[in-house]
Design a protein that fits this description.
Blueprint (H helix, E strand, L loop, with lengths): L1 H39 L10 E9 L4 E8 L2 E5 L4 E14 L5 E4 L2 E9 L7 E7 L3 E4 L1
Antiparallel strand pairs: 1-2, 2-4, 3-4, 4-5, 4-6, 5-8, 6-7
Length: 138
């Protein structure tokens, strides 16, 4: 009987450990599925900062390489229980090798969308463009 009581805590600990180890991947799988759905939804309540780099080979008469790096933060703002305001700004950083080598910021595009918080609904909004005129000659 004494041996049974010695084994009981070990078996309870083993059972608890097994439940935690097998239940954690199920919860992680659910969280990954939910996150995957949110990343595919352009009006989801999720902050993201995608960076897109475009390299153009054979640019100009001397076949130079032009580079444009777009930084595009998307920030949802909760207005109330029914609506989100989703903002997206695109800031292009440009390296232009011809006719004169220039580096600078291209036209900044700001978009704002009013979207219902419920899933599967659309939204509407406006887009504004601002030419900053920032450049430097190398």
């Amino acid at each position: 009987m004494k041996n049974l009581f010695k084994l009981l805590p070990v078996s309870v600990i083993s059972l608890c450990l097994a439940v935690v180890l097998f239940a954690a991947p199920v919860r992680a799988g659910d969280e990954e599925t939910e996150l995957s759905k949110k990343t595919q939804n352009p009006i989801a309540d999720l902050i993201s900062v995608p960076i897109q780099n475009n390299t153009n080979y054979g640019y100009g008469p001397h076949n130079n390489t032009q580079n444009i790096c777009n930084i595009q933060p998307v920030i949802p703002i909760k207005l109330n229980d029914c609506y989100n305001l989703i903002t997206r700004t695109i800031v292009p950083f440009i390296h232009q090798p011809w006719p004169d080598t220039r580096n600078g910021i291209g036209d900044i595009v700001f978009s704002a969308f009013l979207s219902p918080r419920s899933e599967g609904k659309g939204g509407s909004g406006r887009c504004f463009s601002c030419p900053p005129g920032v450049q430097s000659t190398c």
